[in-house]
Amino acid sequence: MSHIIEVNRRMFERVNFSHYKKAHWNQIALTLSFMIMATSPSHAFNLTGQVSLSSGPAIGNIQVCLNKISPPVFICAVSDSNGAYSFTSVDSGSYRLDVQPWGTPTLPTPTAFGIIGIIQNLTISGDVTQNIILPISTVTGTVKGTDTLPISAATVSTNNGNNTTWSANGTSYSSRTSVTTATDGTYTMPVLSQNGYSVTAKTKDPTYTSITQNALDFSANATVNFFLPLTHSITGTVKVDPSISTNGIGNLQICAQQNSPYVFQCAVSDASGSYTITG
Question: Of 228, 173, 171, nearest to 197 (Cα)?
Fold first, then answer.
């Protein structure tokens, strides 16, 4: 920079700018200096880190994206088998980190799982190390009937209270996912780490009745087993006094109630008066 300023000084000295005083020249040189500094590149920094699950293990094949609005920056890197990721030649500024593991077969996450802004307001003014922890827990278990037989192809699904999303630090995460049991009735289900979950196990097999377990804490890995009760039925016919008519009465609702555990099931009689309540 000093060489450039000196060259320009000599150029000015060759020309008769007598109306310029020495102070004027110093001001020009200072302005030129600031112009050179302002146009000098500032992208000389490295950002490195490791991606891991909340349970501890590092995880590879995760796309980590570095995002800045103004001036716009959006670049991505993929974590290696040790969970490590890196960005080089990064401009100074404030950034946001996103993880986008869509289409990542090695990541046990809910469908369309992605976290926008998992790290926010990341200031880079030098080399930075920023680790990323994915808030994921694994729920495992077995679905059986009360007859102890394993139930295959049963659906196990989660919901976090009445909400379908979980918000933390201004970021929304999906808390609804579902899996299907294997032939031995077992299942493994990744969920976003949080408490207050409801989990339902149900099957298309009419032999069994579905069950929901509430207020479950999945802030860490957990095991949830299900024993679906056998479906029982009440059948009968609705008729008027036989001395009046032998015809059944159709379109009449018949309900059965059990208090503990609470069950309330209804059926409507058909044209012949027949009905079946299952539950």
Answer: 173
Give me the mean pLDDT over the 255-268 stretch.
80
Q: Which helix (H) or strand (E) holds 28?
A: helix 22-39
3-state secondary structure of 23: helix
**Residue carrying the six token digits 């009449």:** 252
* Averaged pLDDT of the chain: 77
Would the pTM of this model clear 0.70, i.e. be above it?
no
Task: Tell me how far apart the 2 most distant CA atoms of the chain are, in Å.
Answer: 133
Containing 186, the helix (H) or strand (E) segment is strand 186-192
Residue 153 has pLDDT above 60, yes or no: yes
3-state secondary structure of 39: helix
Question: What are the pLDDT digits (tens) for 123-132?
Answer: 999 999 999 9
Is the pLDDT at 7 greater than 80, yes or no?
no
Q: Is the pLDDT of residue 1 over 70?
A: no
Sign of the dihedral through C-alpha 101, 134, 165, 172: negative
Is there a contact between 265 and 278 (Cβ–Cβ < 8 Å)? yes
Nearest to 182 by CA among 140, 147, 148, 216: 140
Across 183-209, b (16+ Cβ under 10 Å) vs e yields eebebebbbbbbebbebbbbbeeeebb
| 31-65 exposure pattern, b = at least 16 Cβ within 10 A, e = fewer | eeeeeeeeeeeeeebebebbbbbbeeebbbbbbbb
pLDDT value of residue 218: 86
User: Is the CB of residue 102 less than 8 Å from the CB of residue 147?
Assistant: no
Contacts by 232-238 with C-beta closer than 8 Å and gap 24+?
Answer: 232/278, 232/279, 233/276, 233/277, 233/278, 233/279, 234/276, 234/277, 235/274, 235/275, 235/276, 235/277, 236/274, 236/275, 237/269, 237/272, 237/273, 237/274, 237/275, 238/269, 238/273, 238/275
